[in-house]
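Extended Data, panel c. Modelled sequence:
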Amino acid sequence: MNGYFVTGTDTDVGKTYVASALVRRARSLGHSVFAFKPIETGCVTGPSGARLGADQELLAVAAGDWQQGALRGVYRLALPAAPLVAAEREGTTIDLASVVAVAQQGAIEARASLTVVEGAGGWRVPITAREDMSTLARGLGLPVLIVARGRLGTINHTLLTIEAVERDGLVVGAVVLSCRPEDDAVAAASNRAEIHRRWPGSVIALGADPTVLDGLIPRRYEV
């Protein structure tokens, strides 16, 4: 697979916003994309009686809305908590091997030149009693895209997440600051500069212009 595992410095930092923007931009440049969030908590029951994951739906639509069944999302858990906690509430255990297998299947079915898999929460969020998001990322073998807030408080969380990912032996593909319309653009630029001062990799501030993500997308002849 060619692509990214998307993690965050925390919950609600804009992982799905960044992942969806990357997927849409890649498709606009001619890529075939498989994108999904295999595990989502806080899911609600839809009109059909089946559970829906809001983030899973956004990613599937961004990828072209072709995905069905497990390719749209493997686990949909009701409790808005860490996957381990939400799964235990329902008396189930998450099988990461099956999650990795679905990711590989989706990439093959899509003939994907880019695969984007979004985690739940941050890097150390537990999935089972012994496994966390880092375990899933390692199983997928994809570079890690770290999403962080663009606003105050992001420098420390971002640098700690970078350290954790690299200590676990995985490659950080880039850091993307998710900048909301109400965020201070000057503060976001300062955060980007300070993170880059301490870490030599790519640090991107994503606002309304998705072309800033182009450096993360392989050129068509490289696929």
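The mean pLDDT is 95. This feature is highlighted in the accompanying rendering.
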